[in-house]
Structures are given as C-alpha cells and as structure tokens.
C-alpha cells in the first residue's frame, strides 16, 4: 500500500510523465481554442462545418479535449501509469476513428494527420505501459 511518503513504484518514468504532461497541456490549449474560436476549425473534420449547426459540434469536441487533457495532466502529475495508458489507448482509438470518418468524407489525404496521430499515440501508449519509474 502506498503512503504519502512512499514512492509510487508503479509510476511511469519521468520522461513519460513529462511528455504526457506536455501532450495534455497542448490538448488543453486545442480544446480551449475549439471552444473560443470554433470557426477556425471548420474544415478539420473533412466537411465544412460552416453552418451555424456545425460550430457547436466543434465546441463539443473542444469540451471533450479539455476533459481528457485534464485527466492526462492529473495522471501525469500523480504518476498514474495505468490511467495514462488507458487515456492514450482511448486517444489512439479516437484518432483512428477520426481518420476513418474524415477519409470517408474527404479522402485519405485529407485525413492523413489523424492516421499519423493514431500511430504516434499508439507508440505513446506502448511507451507508457512499459515504462517504470525508479524504485529509489
């Protein structure tokens, strides 16, 4: 059992925690931007969401991004390897589904960034899952 003074030996390594924190902070900024200026992201998902009905969709994605980034920031700060692994696995799945959705709507070249995100997030998932912090 962990106490306030015992080190979390199940925590990921410090480099994983730093990268996870930076990714979460970037994702937080993206989410805030999607809420504040959703019109900037109208072409991101393969279809022009310029109709007034489309902008709340982008803001909803922004809210999702903020929530997930806050989970990531807390998990990185606290050294919760399992939570970070599950978060990155979920984000990998989201990116893969976004690739499929955008590729269907606008073609694979328009969606290539989501495929790249999915691959990078899959690598981050594996790195996080296999990483162990120091036992000292």
Written overview of the protein:
The chain is 68% helix and 0% strand. It has 136 residues and is mostly helical. Helix 2 runs antiparallel to helix 3 and helix 3 packs antiparallel against helix 4 (112-130). The mean pLDDT is 88.
Termini distance?
16 Å
Sequence stretches where pLDDT stays below 50 over 5 or more residues: none
Largest β-sheet summary: none
Label the structural class. mainly alpha
How much of the sequence lies in strands comes to: under 5%
Shape: elongated
Amount of helix: 55-70%
Radius of gyration: 17 Å
Oligomer classification:
single chain
Q: What number is the mean pLDDT? A: 88
Count of alpha/pi helices: 4
Order of helical and strand elements:
HHHH
The total count of strands amounts to 0
Structural topology:
Elements: H1 14-36, H2 54-78, H3 81-106, H4 112-130
Helix pairs in contact: 1-2, 2-3, 3-4
In short:
With 136 residues, the protein is mainly alpha-helical. Helix content is 68%, strand content 0%.
Key terms for this structure?
mainly alpha, 4 helices, single chain, 136 residues
